# Entry
Amino acid sequence: MTTRILTGITTTGTPHLGNYAGAIRPAIVASRDPQADSFYFLADYHALIKCDDPARIQRSRLEIAATWLACGLDADKATFYRQSDIPEIPELTWLLTCVSAKGLLNRAHAYKASVDKNVEAGEDPDAGVTMGLYSYPVLMAADILMFNAHKVPVGRDQIQHVEMARDIGQRFNHLFGNGKELFTLPEVVIEEDVATLPGLDGRKMSKSYDNTIPLFGSAKQLKDAVARIVTDSRAPGEPKDPDNSHLFTLYQAFSTHEQQAAFRAELLGGLAWGEAKQRLFELLDNELGEARERYHALITRPADLEDILLAGAAKARRIATPFLGELREAVGLRSFREQVQVATEGKKKAAKAARFVSFREDDGFRFRLLDAAGEQLLLSIAFADGKAAGQVTKRLQSEALDLHAELNAFSVRLDGKAVAYSPEFSTDAERDAAMQRLREALAPQE
Ligand code: TRP
# Structure
């Protein structure tokens, strides 16, 4: 059995070395596992929540698409697409919105952080909070549930969102599944051993700290960034402490054990920081050089990238379109055509339907059989009690009918004894037609 792995990349920035080591590289490695069925997508609807600069959105989508392909993602094996090319996602978002508790979304960390900030500043709690930000977890749940992902690798800040996707999926299953698991409940995957890279200043590498090393800048840009890595002031010749140097941590993320041991020995031996930076630059340039060339080739052919992503979207929609159809069915958004059929079938049944009416008379208990229009088909003989009459009506509905023409009427027999009589007819033809109607009325219904 293959495992479906799904993750999204929000398209608001340009990938840096930290994104590469922490997300892109491990995801591409995971996608090569023959047991893996990977779905990687550009979360460009999510990007709109955080960014209202169309040029930046567009540039980021292009750069991120080119980055993943340049880094070796095989778009034929994995399913690689833009969220905004899958119209089923916003549609599913609405279906999920309708079952998502507002209280659940009130507890989302990102929303709560905004509210707390507003309250602290003495503002309206919801100042500047859009419905996009508020509903962010529902859109993300749709991303995940749409493809019934088993595993969702994300950063720690996204754990709560995956848990919410589980909650929402479970609620939907409960309401509309009819005992069936419509949605697979996803599991979050946090890769403990992937590197969280330090940035130039030693804090976590992040766009928001402005301490990043660009992934696919020119070699010169890479060199300049490495030169800006903050080190201590130990002079050349003085021993350096590798375990308290984020330059060494960066080096570790891209080197073999032997390389690390050698570099450690050099630092302890007094290697100058300038030299150490040159070593790191060479290491990175070596790791990224080829991919950088592929990246620049791709980015100059945006039409090709468009084709690749549209093919990915078509592949994804081969799953999303029929599945959304099932979900629409499940919630009651169904074609009227089927509705009409059900109604006429119902009518046929009604035409067949006949009912027994029992009543008490001076001489005992009798029943009549009336057709759907209320016309009498049979009148029974008198029975000693209601129970005996009831048993006869039951047998008439379950056993083969034994009908006997009697002059201008007919009788129904059980065990050779007449138990009910038809009304009188003026002609034999009318009587025979009534016998036929009776057979139909009492025929077992599917
Ligand atoms: N919210 C995620 C992030 O900012 C991106 C994302 C969107 C995502 N949809 C997803 C991740 C679905 C995993 C699964 O990192």
Summary: The chain has a mean pLDDT of 92. Residues 3-196+301-330 form a domain with the Rossmann fold fold (CATH 3.40.50.620). Residues 302-331 form the longest helix (30 residues).
